[in-house]
């Protein structure tokens, strides 16, 4: 016959081992999330914001007022012309790099809102490590040009 103390000890040891494993798993996931958030923050700081700064320099020469708002996980570029919001372009990371944009019409009403769409390199990869400043600049230019064409037809 099994000693009840031995049986109880084994049950509690099993419970403690399970709890330790679950704690270890949570810590591992939290560590990976922290690492991923740092990768994203570095991407925003080293790739997205410099792209937005280049756009700001160019667009200011075209009488546009530019605002850049950057956080750890996303960045937003706002373009104003004649004191009116003309266009917004945002880059954020949600498992993959996404872009969103909103085109504003002549009376300040939305003509078109689209997003999120994925930024991808020529190999179809969309992780932050695969997205360059040039990809962001090219995508922005395509979206902004589409917005301006829409406005000229209204």
How far is the first residue's CA from the last residue's CA? 89 Å
Biggest sheet overview: 5 strands, antiparallel
Class from secondary-structure proportions: alpha+beta
How many domain regions? Answer: 1
Looking at how many chains there are and whether they match, the oligomeric state comes to single chain
Point out poorly predicted stretches: none
Taken as a percent bin, the fraction of beta residues is 25-35%
Helix coverage percent: 40-55%
| Counted beta strands | 5
Query: How are strands sequenced across the largest beta sheet?
Result: 1-2-3-4-5
Describe the structure.
The protein has 154 residues and is of the alpha+beta class. It has one domain (42-152). Helix content is 50%, strand content 27%. The chain has helices at residues 4-60, 133-152, and strands at 65-70, 74-81, 84-93, 97-104, 110-118. A 5-stranded antiparallel sheet has the order 1-2-3-4-5, covered by helices on one side. A hairpin with a 3-residue loop joins strand 1 and strand 2 (74-81). The longest helix is centred in the first third of the chain and has 57 residues, at 4-60. The protein is rod-shaped, with a radius of gyration of 24 Å.
Helices and strands in order:
Elements: H1 4-60, E1 65-70, E2 74-81, E3 84-93, E4 97-104, E5 110-118, H2 133-152
Antiparallel strand pairs: 1-2, 2-3, 3-4, 4-5
Helix pairs in contact: 1-2
């Amino acid at each position: 016959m099994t000693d009840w103390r031995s049986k109880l000890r084994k049950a509690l040891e099993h419970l403690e081992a399970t709890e330790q494993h679950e704690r270890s798993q949570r810590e591992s996931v939290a560590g990976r999330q922290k690492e991923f958030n740092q990768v994203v923050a570095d991407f925003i700081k080293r790739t997205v914001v410099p792209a937005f700064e280049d756009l700001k320099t160019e667009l200011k020469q075209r009488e546009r007022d530019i605002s850049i708002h950057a956080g750890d996980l996303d960045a937003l570029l706002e373009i104003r012309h004649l004191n009116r919001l003309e266009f917004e372009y945002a880059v954020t990371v949600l498992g993959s790099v996404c872009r969103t944009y909103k085109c504003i019409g002549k009376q300040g009403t939305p003509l078109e809102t689209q997003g999120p769409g994925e930024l991808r390199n020529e190999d179809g990869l969309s992780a932050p490590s695969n997205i360059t400043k040039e990809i962001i600049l090219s995508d922005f230019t395509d979206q902004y040009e589409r917005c301006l064409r829409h406005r000229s037809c209204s």
